[in-house]
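Deviation from plan, reported transparently: 1,4-anhydro-D-erythro-pent-1-enitol complex.
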Amino acid sequence: MSGAKETRRTDAASENTSDAGCTVCLRNPHIQNLNGDILYHLGLGTKTHDLVKMFGDVKFVCMGGTPHRMETFAKYCESELGDVLPAGSTVHQVLEHSHRYSMYKVGPILAVSHGMGVSSMQILLHEVIKLSYYARMRDPIYFRIGTSGGIGIEPGSVVVSLGAVDELINPYHEQVVCGEKVRRPAELDQELAKELSSLHKPGEDEYKVVNGRTMCAMDFYEGQGRLDGAFCYHTEEKKMAYLRRLHAAGVVNIEMEATGFAAFTHLANIRAAIVCVTFLNRLHGDQVSTPKETLLEWEKRPQEIVARYIRRQLSKNK
Ligand code: R2B
Ligand code: URA
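Because the crystal trials were delayed, the predicted structure below was used instead.
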């Protein structure tokens, strides 16, 4: 074990929660000393935008890698959930001044792209969590709707993650802060995962929904044991032994954001889930060779499950 500090949800030295009852925690005592806060990568600010008016009604913050996927998701929600969304809800693009991330809003649903890898997503999460706090969102639920490589499951299956692990199968996210390693548990809401999984319709859906752990890698190639990167100094045997070790530890898919997403949402007291489709079975190869049109169809599967959950929640409040 390294000398990393562990940060738990309950041990925050200072915690900001807004008087209007925002449930999102900013564990940062310095925030109160700011004279306005600029959410630089979103192109939003507390002094320049009425964040409560713009985002105060948001209940579901949905994230995924690409702007295209998140726009598709927002439009899908508009067409599928029209009867449970507030009257007149239409998709609009929110971020005029961000060249980094795309954000769409439709009623109480935000769809945001986070790019590839923990670093890109983590910058977004800092700013979206602050946005949730400043907008006084009440009990927002965060989803990552993504793509992944499966281990031992049929390509096209959807994985609802029960927890995230790093490349060493540690159930935490480790980051260096001011020259010291900080370790944060990568925990996801188990009830939410269970409910999302229950929304699968086995007779009707052409895919399976699988529960298991998700391994988060810092790289698509060597970091996921692939043999087809620009560099590779390991053997096929070593790759297979690693994938089997992951599988034996309950890992059913590999992607590149899970630990950061789980750790940050857990730290901010936000219920969160990761729902990813698998593009291939890594026990059978490394290349994503399924035709693009099929992959685009498969990408809709996690969106379908999350939209069903949103429908159920919104129907309760009708
Ligand atoms: C899944 O797919 C991307 C890599 O192709 C990465 O963002 C991820 O987590
Ligand atoms: N995304 C990943 O990170 N890995 C895969 O194998 C497929 C998609």
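The helical segments are 51-55, 67-80, 118-134, 190-198, 236-248, 258-267, 292-316. We consider this an acceptable substitute for the interim report.
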